[in-house]
Amino acid sequence: MNYTTIQNIDSLSKWVKQALKIKKKPLKNKKLGKDKTLGMLFFNSSLRTRLSTQKAALNLGMNVMVMNFTNEGWTLEFEDGAIMNSGASEHIKEAAEVVSQYCDIIAVRAFAGLIDKEKDNAETVLSGFIKHATVPIINMESATAHPLQALADAITMAEYKTKHKPKVVLSWAPHPKALPQAVANSFLEMMQLQDADFILTHPQGYELNPDITKGVTVEYDQNKAFENADFIYAKNWSSYKDYGQVTNSDTSWTITAEKMKRTNNAKFMHCLPVRRNVIVTDEVLDSENSIVIEQANNRTFAAQLVLQKILKTKLDPKKATKKSKK
Ligand code: CP
User: Fold this and answer.
1) Does ligand 1 have an atom closer than 6 angstroms to the CB of 44?
2) Pocket test for ligand 1, best of 272, 279, 292, 294 (most atoms within 8 A of CB)
3) pLDDT tens track for 157-193
4) CATH tag, 161-290
């Protein structure tokens, strides 16, 4: 079993319930991961993903090895048949299989380069590990998806929702740098697995991948989108159309207390890290309605659920979900 996309979740409501059970007793399965090793490979920076996934593994009694590929690993080649006479020292074929000798599960973080849309959509790094590793793979945010974050978001919303079908708004907000679309993509996919009145709001030109937004209501008027919302999830992403470009830095899209007044006393969510007074004002982020710290806390239980499922699959093949490698 891999966990590389939201599509790996067979029943979101079941997974959320299981994660909340883990949250109540995180050390209950302390022996499950005994003598098993999680290898965490980072091609990009992280705070939450690194520490929460490591904490989750420790809660299960696993050993953890962390490697920062940006400054510690050999530069990898991903192209089949490449003549490796320039920058890259090692091919993914050997690298992934070698890491599999040391680790029972491999977790990979490799963001979008935001230069070549086709290459990012092909998930070169993650796909390379999925194809060539011989152990399960966990996506710790790839070029197009952040399924651990989206699972933690689902857990958090389940904890805070006060009605069966809440109104949830995913709002673009400004940012000085070009950011990937991964968090927004996985959040959208996750929202499609639950009962909610879901609205996506962003400026013209910031449309996400149409394959992912199919059937999603888009409202270009942010104020209108916020009306009576129960959850406001803010996130920046760079343009998908003008791939990787920052074509809009309109500060009128910053989430303010004034805008939050339009909502139904909505909870404020963000995956973090967040740029204060750019994405969201201090007033909103420091308010009682902000649940960003609980979202970050739930990253541990999302990761622990995923690790637990993989460990059970490996320990007892009868429990395996028969999913083809993606
Ligand atoms: N939300 C999230 O993935 O945080 P990090 O980039 O710090 O891991």
Assistant:
1) no
2) 272
3) 999 999 999 999 999 999 999 999 999 999 999 999 9
4) 3.40.50.1370
